[in-house]
Amino acid sequence: MKYKNCWDFVISYYKKHLGIHLPIVKIEKSYAFHFLNEPEKTNWKKNDTPKDFDLVMFYRWLPEHIGIYKNGKVIHYLKNAGVVCHDMNHPCMANWRTYEFWRRNIYES
Predict the structure, then answer these.
(1) CA atoms of 76 and 65, how far apart (whole Å)
(2) Does residue 1 belong to any structural domain of this protein?
């Protein structure tokens, strides 16, 4: 399946695998940056220790990309490669300066 961007993939994944309908976030150049400025952000909490289905926010200088944490890996959509799954230690992950993990409030224990 072809997605418009990384957030479009996250919306589809959450709906299909978790039954959660996430809103369409108006995005432009930096997808994750726009997520941080949307009302949807209030439904998420930043966490230091990732759990399955947390969002992974990728940073270079600004947050620029979003994926989903699952079984110690990141599932994410790349325009030229499609949906990929990488171990957090995979060499391609070195392109990102840092990560943040965000958990949807309904998963709080």
Answers:
(1) 9
(2) no
> Are 56 and 70 in contact, with CB atoms under 8 Å apart?
no
17 in a structural domain = yes
16 Cβ contact list (under 8 Å, min separation 6): none
Number of domains composing the chain: 1
Per-residue confidence band for 41, with pLDDT thresholds at 50, 70 and 90: confident
Task: Supply the pLDDT for residue 109.
Answer: 41
pLDDT in tens, 65-79: 788 999 989 998 888
- What is the spatial distance between Cα 104 and Cα 43, in angstroms, rounded to a whole number? 6
- Domain hosting 93: range is 6-21+29-107
